[in-house]
Amino acid sequence: MARHSDLYRLIEPVPDLRSEDGRGPVLVHGLEGFSDAGQAIQGVSEHLRESLDSQLIVEFDVDELVDYRSRRPHLKYSFDRFADYNEPTIQMHAVKASDGTSFLLLSGLEPDLKWDGFTESVIDLAGSFGVRMSIGLGAMPLGVPHTRPTNSSAHASDVDLIKGFSAWPGEFSVPGNVTSLLELRMAEHGIPSAGFTVHVPQYLSQTAYPAAVLHLVGSIARIADLELPTAELEKAAEEFTDQVNAQIAQSPEILTAVELMEKQYDEFMETRLGSDSLNPGGKPLPSGDEIGAEFERFLAQQTGDGGQGDDPQHNG
């Protein structure tokens, strides 16, 4: 088995993960932390585990990998005592797609510590299970309007893996994260690797954004040739958009800001001048934070309690 078993425990029995033609499984990895705008990564993991047949097969030692002081787990207090502890996890599940094809899902918190040991452990496990391709998931807040189709940036060790998908133009440096490091290390060990970073409207990035979850699930299904359920996600995305549109329609300030963002976004998509920004031409565009702050003020005025009522900005 793997060389770095001190960081995880294998839960027997492990099912046969090979497809009917003898191919090994695809590994989907989505770790929550640095890159999870709109709770998209969490949403994908929960959707796949809950809507499909899944079995826990690997549990990582979070005490070795997570700094609890940076992301403190919640404890539930009930009247006169502490009643429950929301224990953090990093797990790998064997999941069966709707057509019966098995794939692996690595989910949970992004490790704070021992990145090298963790990535080596995952790669060793991937080798043991015969993983044929890995797919990493990310979610980034950007100046995109919620009224336009959700897009993502695709990236891969081999450009042929992402034919038909949109890649981010240019060359630049980004803050490190374990999901991206896994994508790099997988390729270095001969495992084809790809990833998708979904674009989430910055002014909605602090709430659950179903359209981002739907887009990522669709991208996984397409690149890995898996049958994955989306009906529930489609309904949730439609209801969320209707709810946001109804609230925005009552605020002229927010409506104007979103319309301006739509115009700028459409111009960018039409021209594709090679800019590495979704704010082309240097034209003035309200930031996502400014629109989000205005959205919060509007909701507070409607509820009279700081906007903590039944609205998409605080639910999910």
Automatic annotation (TrEMBL):
Keywords in alphabetical order: Proteasome
A Pfam family: PAC2
InterPro entries reported in the protein's UniProt record: Proteasome_assmbl_chaperone_2, PSMG2_sf, Rv2714-like
Keyword Cell wall biogenesis/degradation listed: no
Keyword Signal carried by entry: no
Any one GO CC term of the record: proteasome complex
Region Disordered, residue ranges: 273-293
Designated name of the protein: Proteasome protein
